[in-house]
Amino acid sequence: MGENNIAANEGQKRQPSHKILIGTVVSNKMKKTIVVEVTRKKAHPLYARVISIRKKFYAHDEKNDAHVGDVVRIEESRPLSRLKRWTLKEIVRKTALVPETTVDAEAGAAR
Prior knowledge:
Layout lengths: L1 H10 L8 E11 L2 E11 L6 E11 L10 E6 L9 E8 L11 H6 L1
Parallel strand pairs: 3-5
Antiparallel strand pairs: 1-2, 1-4, 2-3, 4-5
């Protein structure tokens, strides 16, 4: 009877259950790395008031697609560096803000 259970389980491929979080990009100044802030609501254990808990995660962004203010979905992965344990899965919503541009030295001197 035990052999049948093993054979039945071999036919099914198990997907690794990686955690998925949704948050806002707060920094993209590093190469191929973004910092994502995830906010969750939780009831305070004593006062029963709803409080928001914010936590920052470092995520790998291979193509440098995400910008500050974007809402992104990140997925848990193997350790990529000392702090990076997440990868960018998709950009849920792009920000409407225009990224900052650097002012040329010549343009600043002409004023």
